[in-house]
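Second attempt. The first submission of Transport permease protein had a stray character pasted in from the spreadsheet, which I only caught after the job came back as garbage. Lesson logged: always re-copy from the clean sequence file. Corrected sequence (292 aa) follows.
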Amino acid sequence: MTSIDLSQYDVPGRGRGILDVFHWSYLLRLLVRKGTATRYRNSVLGWTWSYVKPGIQYLVYFLVMGIILGMGGRTENFPLYLFAGIVVVNFFNEGFGNATNAIVDNRSLVQKIYLPRELFPISAIIVAFIHFLPQVAILLIVAVFIYGWVPSFVGIGAALVGVFIVGSMALGLGLFFAGINVRYRDAQNFVEVIRMVSTWASPVLYTWTLVAERMHGWVLYVYMMNPLTVAVELFHFAFWESTVSSDAENASPGFPPHFEVYLIAALVVCALALTIGQFVFRRFERTFAQDL
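This time the job returned cleanly.
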């Protein structure tokens, strides 16, 4: 009886999780292309919405926080400070939300063919990153031509680390809730709550010094170790800090004390989120076709 070597064949349902992205990169590119092409299909404004929606959001926040509540008078170059934080949170919210719905939105593919299911949440994060780039472009234009921002290697490196943290956290949470969402659609409600709270749970509309004045002990440490808080502060350092005077009492420039500890803690939290998210996703993946 002839024996057949099956070591070179892939067994459906068995994979390496996120690592399979490198093996299925061609399909990943197709999913990303599909996500970007269909986002604004049959829309009159098309990609202009990538500028309009964050612009309206920014104007509302600036009107309420900057003018009505007076943050503009207490924080130097507050418009730039606010916008640098908003683009980070928008990236997280879009990536997290899209990743959560990635399996449900692609139910026809999940039910008919086998491919690593992780490709869908990962492609959703990449699509969110592509839509994040126009906002960064506006941020750069405003920072350079209005506030005289000068790029530096350290600042650009800080921004890249911030993007990595946000993308990792969005993917980890997205995998976790994407798996649960297929069987229990209540997961979408939890995701909406997290997205709603994310803007207020990081120093986007206010400075970290206001939090430090009113929160102490472990509560402050938990707040500062929040990956979104760390990512927002990295963006503030990259785009806002160099535009304010270091001796200004109301500017609040500089990293919070012990920021390197918070950065390491945020990276650990992201690693845990990816690990737990992948584990939960793989557990629910077994019944995706039936549950859909």
